Amino acid sequence: MTLLCLLLTSVSCLTIPKKESAVKFTKMHGCGNDYVYLNCFQEQVADPSRLAPKISDRHFGVGSDGLVLVMRSDKADVRMRMFNPDGTEAEMCGNAIRCVAKLAYESGISRKPELRVETGAGVLTLQLTIENGRVQRVRVNMGNPILERGQIPMLGPAGKVVNEPLMVDGRQFIVTCASMGNPHCVTYVDDVSRFDVHRWGPLIENHPSFPRRVNVEFVEVVSPAELRMRVWERGAGETLACGTGASAACVAGVLTGRSEREVIIHLLGGDLELEWADDDCVYKTGPAVTVFTGDWEE
Fold it and tell me: Phi first, then psi: what are they for 51, rounded to 5°?
C-alpha cells in the first residue's frame, strides 16, 4: 500500500511537457463573443485559414466564433488578424480587439494604458481600464463610419443607404447600411427575442446586393438611449455579441432618428456602451474576459 501511494504521488507530480507540434492558445470573450487567441510573438501558425475551422469547432475543437492572431506590427503596438469559423479572414471585430488589448497588456507585449492596434480596417486606438494589474474594460475608438453605398460595399446608386427597402425572399425589410471597417446591414424589428434570426440572417448575409456579403443586425428600440440587438455575423452565424455591429446600430439609430448618439445596447452576451461623438468617431466600451489557456496539437 505504501509503495502504491508513493507511485501515485510521483505520477501526480509529473509535468507533461508541451509537444513541439502544439501551439499555446488563450480562449477569451467580450460579451460572449468568444475567440481563440494566439500570441504570435511566441507561437507560429503556418495556415490560419485552415486552422480556424478546426479550432473553432464547438464539438471537436476548442469552440469559438473564430481565430485571432496577435502579431508584430510596424504601424502600431500590435497587429490583429481575425479568421471566421469558415476560414475566411475578416477585417475587424470590435469585441475581439478588446481582448487583443487585454492579452497584449497582461502578457507584457505592451504595458501601455493606451494601445494602438493594426487591423484590416486600419489602426485603432484603445484605452484600457486596469485594476490590480488586470484589464477589466476597454474603450475603443472604432473610427468614422463609412456611409457611401459603394464603399460599404453595396450595389446600387451612389449615396447613403438609410431607411431603404430590401426585398428578401418575398419579404421587404427596411435597412440602413454602414461599414465599420466591415459591412453591416441594420434593420428594426418589434420583438428581437422572437424574431427568426436564423432564417433571415443568412438570406440577408448572402443577398446579391452585398458583393462581399454582410453582417446583419436586428434591432429593437427600447428607448432613444437603449437598444436590444441580435446579430448574424458573416461567416460565423448568430453570435452573442458583435462590436462593429453594435457600432453600426448606434450610427443607424442616429441616421434614422430612432436613437440618440449615446446608447446602451443589450446583446445576448451582455451590454456595450456606444457613442457616435462630435468628432464623427464611434466609441465603444465593454469588458474583456480570459476564459482559459491550453495547448492545441496540430
Answer: -70, -35
